[in-house]
Design a protein that fits this description.
The chain is mostly helical. It has 3 domains: 6-138, MgtE N-terminal domain-like (MgtE N-terminal fold); 152-263, CBS-domain (Roll), CATH 3.10.580.10; 295-460, Tetracycline Repressor, domain 2 (Orthogonal Bundle). Helices cover 63% and strands 5% of the residues. It contains 23 helices and 6 strands. The protein has helices at residues 13-25, 29-37, 41-46, 53-62, 65-74, 77-87, 92-97, 100-108, 112-119, 125-134, 142-145, 159-169, 196-201, 208-211, 226-236, 256-274, 287-294, 299-314, 316-321, 329-353, 361-395, 397-427, 438-460; strands at 152-153, 181-184, 190-194, 220-221, 240-244, 250-255. The strands form 2 sheets. Strands 1-2-3 form a 3-stranded mixed sheet. α20 (329-353) runs parallel beside α22, α20 (329-353) packs across α23 (438-460) and α22 (397-427) runs antiparallel to α23. The protein starts with 12 loop residues before the first helix and ends with a helix. The model is unreliable at 1-10 (pLDDT under 50).
Amino acid sequence: MPPNGATKYLQPAALILPELRELLAANDYATLKQCLRELHPVDLADRWDAFEPGQQVQLFQLLGTVAAVKLFETLSPEDQRFLLMTLGDESAPVIEGLAPADVARLFRRLPKRVVKKLAGLVKREESLQKIQLLMTFPPGSAGSLMHPEFIKLTPTMTAKQALETVQAIARPHRDHHLFALYVTNGQGKLVGALTLQELIGAPSDARLAELMSSIEAIRIPATVDQEDVAKRFAKYDLVSAPVVDEAGALIGVLTVDDIIDVMRQEASEDIAKMAGTKVEEFQAHTVFRVVRLRLPWLIASIVGGFLVSLVIRHYEGTLLQIVALASFMPLIAAMGGNVGAQSATVVVRSLALGHLHRADWQKAMVREAAVGLLLGMTYGVGVGAFAYLLYGAQLGGYFALVVALGMLTSMVVAATIGALEPFVFQGLGIDPATATGPLITTTTDLIATSTYLALATLILL
C-alpha cells in the first residue's frame, strides 16, 4: 500500500490536466475542489508550468491547507516567490504550515522587506525564534538544514516517563523528530541516543542512562558543510543525526529526508560543473539565461584554444615540411581529452564518496598514469600501424613511430593530469568537480598537441 495515505489520490496529473483547464475557464470552483482532492500535490507541482500565472493562484487558493503546504514545498523557488508576492497576507496558513527549516530556506531567497512582512505572519513566537536560529547559520551548513524541534529527555528518566513525554509532545504531521530520541543533561549537552523501538521494548522502570547508546560518531557540529553531513549519513547508514553547537548542546535534528535532498542537490551541482555550467541551468526557462550561465565556463576553452594556436604556429615549419602530421592531431588531442576526463571523473567521484582523501593524491596519480600508459600503448600501436599504412611508403617508419609515441604520451599525460587536478582544486578550496569540465579538456589538448609536434620535430627533422 502506498505510504502517507497516497491511495486517496486517484487521478494522474496528465489525465486530469485538460479537465482542470476547462473547469478554470468555466469558473466551476466546486468541481475544481473535488478534482484537486483526488490529485496528489506533488503530481500537480509536476504540471504547474502548464497553467497561466492567474490560474496557478486560483488553484493554490482552492487547495486545502495541508495540500497547499505540500504543493508549496515541491514548487521551484521562483514559483514560491510568485505565490507569496501575489497572495500577501493570504499566504499566512502556508507559512505557518511549513517546517521552520523550510521557512528559513525560503526567507534566504527573498528580499529583506518581503521577509520582514512574511515574518509578521508567523503568529507563534516559538516558531519565529526557531526560524531566526536557523538563519544564523551559513546556507548549506548542518545548522541551516536541521529541524530545531526535538524531544528533551534526561538520563534520570525511566522508560515509562520517557514514553509519557513522547506521547505528550508528538503531534500529527510533526513526527520527523521521532526517528531517534536524544538524551541531554541538565545543561542541554548531548550525552546519548536511543530509538523509539528501544524505548518501547525496555522495562518501564529502566533508566535512560542504562538504555542510551553513544553518539560520538554521529553528532554533527552545526557549522559542518552539508556535503560532509551526507557522507556521514551514508557511512553510518543513519536515519537521523543530532546537531550540536560549539558547547556540545543539542540544538536540532537532521533526518534522512533532508539528506536525500542534499545528495540530489550536490549531485546536480557536480553534474553541472562537470558539463561546464551551473545547476541553475536545469530550471532556466530562456535561451539567454542558459547562454549567460555557460558563457563564463567556456573562457578556459577559448584561452586554451588560443594557446594551442600559438603552439601550432611555433611548429609551423615542421607542419609545412610534413603536412601529414596535421591529419592525426585531432585524433591524438581527442583521445587525450577523453582519457583525462575519465580519470578526473573517477577521482572526483571517489573524493565525493570518501574512497579517496587529500593525502591519497600520489596513489591516485600513479594508478591513473599506469592506466594511461597501458591504454596509450594499446592505442598507440593501433594508430601507429594505421599511420604506416597511409604514409609509410612516403614518410617511412619514423612517421608511424611519431604518431604512436604522440598517442602514448598524450594519454599518459592526460590521465596523470586528470587524476591530479581534482586534488589541486580541493587544496585551493574549489569544488573538484570543476576539474572535469572544459578545463581538463583544454589542458590535455594543449599538452597533447605540444608533445606530438615536439616529438615530430625531434625525430623527423
